[in-house]
Amino acid sequence: MIPAAVLGLVLASGSTHLATTTDRGDQAPLPGQIVSEVEDDALTLETWLGQRGSAPNQGGRSTGVAAGPRYDITHVPACAGNDPNIEGADAGCVEADVGCAEEGAVRYFVFRRLAGDAAAAWEATGSNCLAPSEASAASAEVPAMTLADFQRLPLPAGTPNIEPSNGYTLVGVPTNVYADAEPVTLDTDLLGFPVQVRATPSRYAWDFGDGNAHGPTEDAGAPYPDLRITHEYVSAGVHGVELTTYYSGEYSVAGGPWLPILGEAEVTSATVDVEALAGRNRLVAEAGG
Fold first, then answer.
1. What is the predicted pLDDT for the residue at 166?
2. Whole-prediction pTM value?
3. How far is it, in rounded angstroms, from Cα 115 to Cα 118?
4. In sequence order, what E strands does the chain have?
5. What is the Cα–Cα distance from 96 to 129, expressed in whole angstroms?
6. pLDDT bracket for residue 137 (50, 70, 90)
7. Domain made up of 147-277: CATH architecture
8. Hey, which of 97, 117, 146, 221 would disulfide with 229, CB 3.0 to 4.6 Å?
9. Residue 129 pLDDT class (50, 70, 90 cuts)
10. Which residues, 6 or more positions from 160, have their beta carbon under 8 angstroms from its beta carbon?
């Protein structure tokens, strides 16, 4: 009998949930962790799918895993006409040999297709600079990072900036807003593989707290006097403003090529309260009058 052991979940079915490897013993797994147990020489999967910061589902157990795709990756020299969909179209060229700053590196076109489907067409995903031996090693089957995996990463919320910056504005006067958000690089694991993720802010959406919204838009706005995104409140009161930042991403498995993540992850900032004040007009006597 094989003692129960907790394993990082690495399955041919291609689950792409973030996995960790730990010694569980008799303790329940951490939220967000995926584990499996092996008992009596039969593979019995017991999967915990609790989200970050929440209790595990239904007592912590689910009977299945979400299946995500796996891809075959291949590289061909970055030369005009090179394409793994065309037999023999993989010759080298001077442009590929001198296209990288690193000594001994060659620029390669990177292609992928669904693993196990020899009839599927290769899809271009970009290019990469690698030594020939690295390109050969990187041409392998790798797990795909799904949008759900991307969304689970600790992506930082963008910072909402509101002008005037003292927490007050006037009814009927444009209130200026703009977002601060920077690209981030995160390290994680995917089915036991080390993965690096690059997340780049791509769009922004504003909720002004009075039933009106703006975006999503690629424009982050700008500080005064460049008023690109403004809102006028029509009634006095306190309004909670929220900024949602959308990230596009790409990932690299075990130092391999950068591959796109399909879709955008989104993170919403904490609410910032703005009080709209109603102004009144009145005549004031001139000095000395």
1. 94
2. 0.58
3. 8
4. 6-8, 35-39, 42-44, 70-77, 106-114, 123-130, 141-143, 159-163, 168-170, 175-180, 184-190, 193-207, 213-217, 230-231, 237-253, 258-268, 272-277
5. 9
6. low
7. Sandwich (2.60)
8. 221
9. confident
10. 177, 179, 206, 241, 242, 243, 269, 272
